[in-house]
From TrEMBL:
PANTHER family: PROTEIN MMS22-LIKE. InterPro entries: MMS22-like (IPR042320), MMS22L_N (IPR029425). This is MMS22-like, DNA repair protein. Pfam families: MMS22L_N. It comes from Callorhinchus milii (Ghost shark). Residues 1-611 form the Protein MMS22-like N-terminal domain. One of its GO terms (biological process) is replication fork processing.
């Protein structure tokens, strides 16, 4: 964040702690506002309409300077200085309002009819007048998304020295004004001790209800809509493989505005029991999700079009969750408790994993990579695991390939028990590599989420989440289900139980795997399936070795299976073609036994039963 911004400068911190917004300025008897001298302690009371009128004039002047054909490159430096001066004058006026409210505004009190000083009468009306003027200002500046394209285009302007076009200054003035309105309304509410301020004159003229509370809510919702609209325009450039590296903002100032709104709304929730940031945001995002499944996407507020609202929601929520890592000063604080948004993410998961229509693997990988990131940031949530398991339990035979990724996107079957075990360790380690999207399929993302949620659940709750998941996972496997597994399905089955062995009750899981594999009739399996089964069992055996657990149970079963194959291989009645097939199994066994003996340190865990 910029050192001159609201976060690093301490402006937000002073706002939330209800400290003087600018303790070292506006201390003289007079103050310069828009090139006029005003009495510091009375200007806002005596001339609010005039001051806001001058503000609108300055904004209009900057708008004229920012017209597409009005910029003279020969005068770039002079125009930059002039535009910057106008912006600073406007920002200083808004800052003066905050200081005035903090220092001089008192909660409304009953005025005696006998001796009312004219100033006291006008001062008592200031909160109401201020709400009216701020409302008029919001109407005057309009929505961010309604700004001309040449203005919005400056979001991507690269800094070349310190000279910017007027359009850049105008855009950032709009950002300043949008945030300052929220600041002023927040300070007003604090100074009025929670009293609702009614805009009496506005209500008398229009018959519409306008209060400080309703204006804050309306403006905040409008600002969130504008920021979402800007993010949608940014999302157009996002590739599925770059979902974590492409941010939701084009400019650091937009990032800061998001962070400011997050901090303010979460603070107000603690103080006044209003909705937290996520609840405000979810209302807008749910409207977008109504367009999920439509070929045309969804239109936002007649100005923004999003072709992939579901992917956009995943992307935006993930990056906004990362912004929660920053504290009020703009520094990263990974130890602070984070507000999670699991309830909404559960809705996204159900849309990403529908019960009927299939989801493209390229989208599913992106969604689950976002989900994995959220699992790392937030407290554990087992509903994510159960929702995903309901989907993948029905698609275990899937290859989960992405055609346009070529060889990188092809599912592969592990060639050795050791490589199976290594893949399991990678799934459980929790580290995300930059090319994870290309190197792992969506099922492997699910395994990572499963492992992470199990580990975090055990650390935070004390009780092992395996007790809650055990029945849901085991119940999906029965004889017919096992017999329907293809080679890829069997690979996914083994990968699942290897991960469960690593993060849950290993001996219980291995025992269940053994029972389930016994449901398969070897004569009905292909050689590749039987070979895969053996490699999987040896991977479990290697896991036992690492945990220093006796392997006699697994070794005996594997040895018996090997002896049956060897016996058939050496029969004279077995034809040559069959022997070639059986040799594949025998070589698989011998290679795996060699891995076990090379891995074992002391050979004291009944490894001899493999011989």
């Amino acid at each position: 964040f910029s050192v001159d911004g609201y976060l690093v400068s301490g402006s937000l911190n002073r706002l939330l702690l209800m400290l003087d917004p600018s303790p070292t300025v506006y201390e003289a008897d007079t103050v310069n506002i828009f090139d006029f001298q005003w009495v510091t302690e009375t200007a806002l009371v005596e001339s609010p309409q005039l001051l806001f009128g001058l503000l609108r004039q300055k904004i209009s002047s900057l708008e004229d300077m920012a017209l597409p054909n009005s910029f003279d490159f020969g005068q770039a430096k002079r125009i930059h200085c002039e535009a910057d001066e106008i912006r600073q004058q406007c920002v200083n006026f808004l800052q003066y309002i905050k200081v005035f409210l903090f220092r001089y505004l008192e909660p409304s009190r009953e005025l005696s009819e006998e001796s009312v000083h004219p100033y006291d009468e006008v001062e008592a009306k200031l909160p109401s007048v201020l709400v009216e003027e701020l409302h008029a200002l919001t109407l005057y500046i309009g929505h961010l998304g309604e700004l001309p394209s040449n203005i919005l285009g400056t979001l991507t302007t690269q800094k070349q020295g310190k000279i910017f076009p007027p359009s850049w200054h105008l855009l950032h003035l709009h950002l300043d004004i949008h945030w300052s309105i929220l600041e002023i309304l927040h300070i007003l509410g604090e100074k009025m001790l929670g009293q609702v301020v009614y805009a009496h004159q506005f209500m008398n003229l229009t018959g519409e209800n306008l209060t400080s509370t309703s204006l804050f809510e309306d403006h905040c919702n409008n600002l969130l809509r504008d920021l979402i609209g800007l993010a949608v325009n940014r999302y157009i450039e996002v590739r599925p493989s770059e979902v974590l590296t492409t941010c939701h903002y084009q400019c650091g100032c937009v990032k800061e505005l998001w962070a400011l709104v997050i901090q303010l709304l979460n603070h107000r929730k603690k103080a006044s029991h209003t909705g937290a940031f996520w609840s405000w945001l979810n209302n807008h995002l749910r409207n977008m999700l109504q367009g999920v499944g439509s070929m045309e996407g969804v239109h936002l507020w007649d100005i923004t079009h999003c072709k992939d609202p579901l992917g956009f929601n995943w992307w935006l929520v993930t990056h906004l969750a990362m912004l929660h890592l920053f504290d009020r000063s703009g520094t990263t604080d990974e130890k602070k408790p984070m507000e999670n948004n699991w309830k909404f993410v559960e809705e996204l998961l159900k849309l990403s994993c529908p019960s009927q229509a299939g989801v493209l693997e390229e989208h599913l990988r992106m969604h689950l990579q976002c989900c994995l990131t959220l699992c790392e940031l937030w407290d554990p949530n087992l509903t994510t695991v159960t929702t995903l398991w309901e989907y993948y339990s029905k698609h275990l035979n899937g290859a989960f390939n992405i055609p346009w990724l070529g060889l990188k996107g092809l599912a592969s079957v592990s060639k050795s028990p050791f490589s199976m075990l290594e893949m399991t360790k990678i799934c459980c380690c929790g580290d995300q590599s930059p090319n994870l999207y290309q190197s792992e399929n969506s099922f492997q993302f699910f395994l990572r989420i499963l492992a992470l949620q199990m580990k975090k659940g055990k650390e935070t709750s004390g009780t092992h989440p395996w007790k809650q998941l055990k029945g849901r996972i085991y119940s999906k496997f029965h004889q017919r289900k096992m017999q329907e597994l293809s080679e890829m399905g069997l690979q996914n089955f083994i990968s699942l139980f290897l991960v469960l062995s690593a993060v849950a009750e290993m001996e219980d899981v291995v025992s269940r795997v053994s029972d389930l594999l016994d449901l398969l009739n070897p004569s009905l399996l292909s050689v590749t399936q039987r070979s895969l089964m053996w490699r999987g069992c040896f991977a479990f055996l290697l896991m036992y070795e690492e945990k220093n657990i006796d392997v006699s149970f697994l070794a005996t079963k594997l040895s018996d299976a090997f002896q049956k194959v060897a016996k058939e291989f050496y029969l004279k009645t077995t034809d040559f073609t069959r022997k070639v097939t059986l040799w594949t199994l025998l070589s698989t066994y011998m290679d795996a036994v060699q891995e076990v003996f090379e891995t074992s340190s002391y050979l004291h865990l009944s490894e001899e039963k493999l011989l």
